[in-house]
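Researcher: Quick test of sequence recovery. Tokens follow.
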């Protein structure tokens, strides 16, 4: 099989996303990691094609009318440990058709893999989480998966999944499926195509004005997450762009959820623009971790993915040069590709942001290559927010 996951992939992914030693057994809400991100989209067949061709992902599983599931077609794509599921409504009566009509393409489930669904669910509900799905077993010839789901911001939820007694390609009912892009000729010729990313680093939520602390407290209380140091307060909010941000993470740091809210500033906040067009809170961006951001950006650009622009002045700024010091490539390589760089006491990171990946100015992606830094690119907020505001202006939303 192509690009099959092994222990080395798991170790690589954990290193890339900055996982730390942590005894999950001592946790009130033990989390093994991110299981998958479920997108509800208008056309899952075409989404699966885009993420295969433009994001280099591999389709590994499918479920649809052919398997007796008349409501939806669902495609499971992976890249290293990252797993995205694209679900499109087949039946006009499918509940998810209404979700797409309201929000357009977006993230509905940020699913977590847990060792004990019942214990995690009971803890979350005791701590005030709203129930989406009670714990239940689903079974097919590959074994049993136990899962439950709790509600989070907007129409978003967190499934809690125990797949330790399951050996199928995804979840019961799904069948293995061959990749959409045929890379077999290259593989036969001895060239193993390089993945554009190996793991999901973080998933960011946009919530309403005044609700950021509510959701930070939610993740602390319900999931035992803790605050990470990085946050954007009033100072950055009013100087650069109108948002406030705090980050919560699981004990291992494998699951990291920054939460943004709009702040009142001179201009219309990029978060307000999202909330208006998504018609409520939801997932804003997914950061995907790579060990070669230069190659990934080149490949994705060549396939037609649009990235935010960064002016040359960013790279020519002597203050930035001094702060950044030496990174693994000459700054010119980053400048050529508009890749941003930030450094803190632990190390540095390289990052770049795509433009929104659907018609509405809502969900986008971030490519991130960490070298020690566990941050989120705080030093880049000014340059990044100015780039976002140029796009907002072009859309007539500023
Ligand atoms: O995840 C983060 O916090 C960074 C920075 O609209 C960021 O990627 C924050 C807000 C935003 C885009 C990026
Ligand atoms: Fe980010």
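Model:
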């Amino acid at each position: 099989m192509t690009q099959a996951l092994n222990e080395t992939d798991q170790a690589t992914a954990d290193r890339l996303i900055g996982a730390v030693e942590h005894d999950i057994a001592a946790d009130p809400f033990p989390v093994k990691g991110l299981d998958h991100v479920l997108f509800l989209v208008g056309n899952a067949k075409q989404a699966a094609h885009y993420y295969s061709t433009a994001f280099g992902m591999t389709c590994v599983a499918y479920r649809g009318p052919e398997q007796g599931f008349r409501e939806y077609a669902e495609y499971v794509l992976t890249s290293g440990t990252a797993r995205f599921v694209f679900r499109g409504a087949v039946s006009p009566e499918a509940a998810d058709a209404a979700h797409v009509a309201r929000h357009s393409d977006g993230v509905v489930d940020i699913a977590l893999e847990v060792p004990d669904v019942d214990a995690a669910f009971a803890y979350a509900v005791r701590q005030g989480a709203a129930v989406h799905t009670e714990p239940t077993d689903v079974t097919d010839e590959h074994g049993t998966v136990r899962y439950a789901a709790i509600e989070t911001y907007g129409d978003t939820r967190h499934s809690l999944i125990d797949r330790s007694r399951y050996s199928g390609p995804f979840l019961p009912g799904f069948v293995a499926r061959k990749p959409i892009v045929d890379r077999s000729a290259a593989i036969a010729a001895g060239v193993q195509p390089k993945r554009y990313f190996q793991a999901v680093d973080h998933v960011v939520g946009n919530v309403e004005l005044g609700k950021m602390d509510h959701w930070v407290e939610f993740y602390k209380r319900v999931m035992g997450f803790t605050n990470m140091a990085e946050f954007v307060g009033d100072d950055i909010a009013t100087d650069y762009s109108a948002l406030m941000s705090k980050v919560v993470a699981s004990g291992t740091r494998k699951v990291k959820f920054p939460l943004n809210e709009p702040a009142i500033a001179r201009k219309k906040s990029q978060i307000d623009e999202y909330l208006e067009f998504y018609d409520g809170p939801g997932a804003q961006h997914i950061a995907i971790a790579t060990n070669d951001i230069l190659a990934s950006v080149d490949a994705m650009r060549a396939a037609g993915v649009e990235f935010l622009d960064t002016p040359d002045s960013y790279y020519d700024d002597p203050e930035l040069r001094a702060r950044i010091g030496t990174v693994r490539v000459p700054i010119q390589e980053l400048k050529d590709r508009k890749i941003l760089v930030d450094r803190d006491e632990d190390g540095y990171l390289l990052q770049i942001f795509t433009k929104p990946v659907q018609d509405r100015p809502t969900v986008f992606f971030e490519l991130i290559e960490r070298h020690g830094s566990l941050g989120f690119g705080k030093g880049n907020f000014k340059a990044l927010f100015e780039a976002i505001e140029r796009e907002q202006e072009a859309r007539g939303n500023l």
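The first helix runs from residue 7 to 16.
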